[in-house]
Amino acid sequence: MKEIVIGFLGCGNIGCGVYRLLETHGQEMAANEGVSFAVRRILVRDPKKKRGWEIPSVLLTDRAEEVLEDPQISIVMEFMGGEEPAASYIIRALRAGKSVVTANKMALATHWDEIIAAARESGAGLYYEASVCGAIPIIRAMTDSLQANRITSLMGIINGTTNYILSRMSREGADYSEVLGDAQRLGLAEPDPTADVEGYDAAYKLSILSSLAFHRHVPVEKIYREGITGVTALDVACGREFGLTLKLLAVAKEENGSIQARVHPTFVPDSHPLASVSDAFNAVFVNGHACGEMMFYGRGAGDLPTASALVSDLVKAAKADHHSLPAVSSQSVFMAEDWECVHFVRMLAKDEPGVLRDVAGRFADEGVSIASMVQKGKRDEGGYVQLIFLTHRASEKHVRRALERMDGSLAREICVIRVENE
Amino acid sequence: MKEIVIGFLGCGNIGCGVYRLLETHGQEMAANEGVSFAVRRILVRDPKKKRGWEIPSVLLTDRAEEVLEDPQISIVMEFMGGEEPAASYIIRALRAGKSVVTANKMALATHWDEIIAAARESGAGLYYEASVCGAIPIIRAMTDSLQANRITSLMGIINGTTNYILSRMSREGADYSEVLGDAQRLGLAEPDPTADVEGYDAAYKLSILSSLAFHRHVPVEKIYREGITGVTALDVACGREFGLTLKLLAVAKEENGSIQARVHPTFVPDSHPLASVSDAFNAVFVNGHACGEMMFYGRGAGDLPTASALVSDLVKAAKADHHSLPAVSSQSVFMAEDWECVHFVRMLAKDEPGVLRDVAGRFADEGVSIASMVQKGKRDEGGYVQLIFLTHRASEKHVRRALERMDGSLAREICVIRVENE
């Protein structure tokens, strides 16, 4: 039996989950996989703090070098989260020839080149299944199962907090701020929810996923990002009437040699497999030229689901004779500046003769063709009515230009939500 | 660049799909993966037959030894299908030290021990992702991603033909035989549909899946198997009224130390992720103690989806320094002789005073508790009415015994469909 000595960086809920899995399931796993693990040292901020699982205090240290420089430790597991010092520690571990297993999408997405370079130089392994969608083996799918495919698109619900909020808004007709408050009380959203609700978390994950899908690095700063804070109960309700469900989607597509990568509130048809992915569940829908449509569904967060992915990486790292780096070329990526999709447009338009003609005219001027239009409710006190348009597939730029040309003069409070119906 | 010389056993649609993927996508794959493939010899029944993709005739042979005994060939891909001679060829290839990539669930499920033994002796690799659910990487999920989990249950729609038939019956209220005829005309069902509609195909796949899930070999002959030929439009319609969708499910569970493995028509709640898996799509729903609920969804058949899985195995086999055998112990498995679930029971009961009391009494005698009951339609000419019962979770054996005790005397045409609602 091969015994591998490992160290942890961090020991919050996820670290405790990993420790717990190794303690309770380690023997069975050793029998199945022929490899066992001994945790030698755990870096924590405060060794005296009470933790979610009983961990021998002799393992705890607040000095990073006791993990990073211990020659006996061959695999370092990182679950500190955040950009720094996690990224620097990951790089130090790799440079020291220690393989790294990490759940840290932020460190990975923001320091991709340096981290990959450090792994390449030393030959150490880099494993990050847990960084995207918790237990769902979507990284393995990309790297180990879809090699024969040209991936044409991927669309994912990859942030559980926003999916919980949107699911409840959809079910209850509730408003964003109301549900956010509940989510915070339940511990499903952070006290400062920005990273989730503004789509940063999803963008980090999409950077990793799309880089693997398209074999070129898609930097996080090139991802179009729009959060869910502007979404209203009215949008959700209007979408329903068109047979559409609102999700925060991470979308990446390769079209005509350029890559689109974007995170934004998105309507999908109620019949789409992603529409029924509710609450804190995650799912990634992938389209490949050979495999066709696939979807991977499961728990995208939580201590044990994330630990499940981390431990599977740990086993993979331990059993590997040599480590494969991600098949992502350093060749710079050509990002699309525009993309086409169906647009849902809601606006308060002046309720005057000729306004609808003029609104329609602005769309027509930009080549945007309207698939359907409804008027909601009655004229308000200011003399405006709520109009909702669904366009045919149209250029994002053209739609925006058309809307700019009517904003103020013909309509106000214009809201655009993209529709993905493929 | 590592170049690997390979041979094919068989070259029907799937073989042509693999050849086509290697020809059209091989260069890109080589750039990504650092390995390329040269097809050296292809065993076919008739080298003169016209095929779906143009294959140089110099590669074709009708002599198996030209593939099995060629020392240059290091990986053999098998897509002949059927038990023999495929199983013997797989074993010969493995014994000769050649790794085998196969899509053949029947050969694998029926000759598991011999095939594994041959691989173990020579150290050659055995790869079979394509044998279950086409493009869906469910084998990888079991072997490479869920190692840290005790799998408690798996439920799958793993036969596309029956799912197509049941989906259409459900949508259109059509009868089994009518839709089967259509499926045959469309090439979605074989002229002799037995292997699909009687659940044999699903049982082979379940044998493989459940062996990996529970780490003990679940022989196909120990799997309870019931096909969809007895399912009526009435059953489908009655299920609908209870909010249930009918699927042919492959179910495997570990409960109290014993394993249940069964293939049968099954109702799932309309809200269950499996309920919306329609037509020729496949999906496997897995429950693990750490990962929680997961689902893998995609195309379970077709030449390119299956080729996608075969080529991913090919890459894996080519890049491996040593090959892992499935973590399945030879320790014999303890199969459950009974299991508990909710039962949907439809019967024609005598429309006489006291009959309902007596029917209810038979259920009660066996400890089967009724959750709901409805009467459908009117008394027929023979004086019978259609009754439908939904039980609470109850022992399969007890339900059967209760029904035997009312069959003939109180009711006739009794039909039982299990309900999985977890």
Describe the 3D structure.
2 copies of one chain form a homodimer. The longest helix of chain A is centred in the first third of the chain and has 21 residues, at 13-33. In chain A, strands 7, 8, 9, 10, 11, 12, 13, 14, 15, 16 and 17 form an 11-stranded mixed β-sheet that branches. Chain A has helices at 13-33, 65-68, 86-95, 105-110, 112-122, 138-145, 160-172, 176-185, 194-197, 200-214, 233-241, 303-319, 355-365, 396-406; strands at 2-9, 35-43, 60-61, 75-78, 99-102, 126-127, 151-157, 224-225, 244-255, 258-269, 281-288, 292-299, 340-350, 370-376, 384-391, 394-395, 411-419. Chain A folds into 3 domains: 2-134, Rossmann fold, CATH 3.40.50; 138-299, 2-Layer Sandwich (Dihydrodipicolinate Reductase, domain 2); 340-419, ACT domain (Alpha-Beta Plaits, 2-Layer Sandwich). By secondary structure, chain A is an alpha/beta fold. At the A-B interface, helix 1, helix 6, strand 12 and helix 12 of A face helix 1, helix 6, strand 12 and helix 12 of B.
Write a concise synopsis of the structure shown:
The structure is a homodimer of 422-residue chains. Chain A is built from 14 helices and 17 strands. By secondary structure, chain A is of the alpha/beta class.
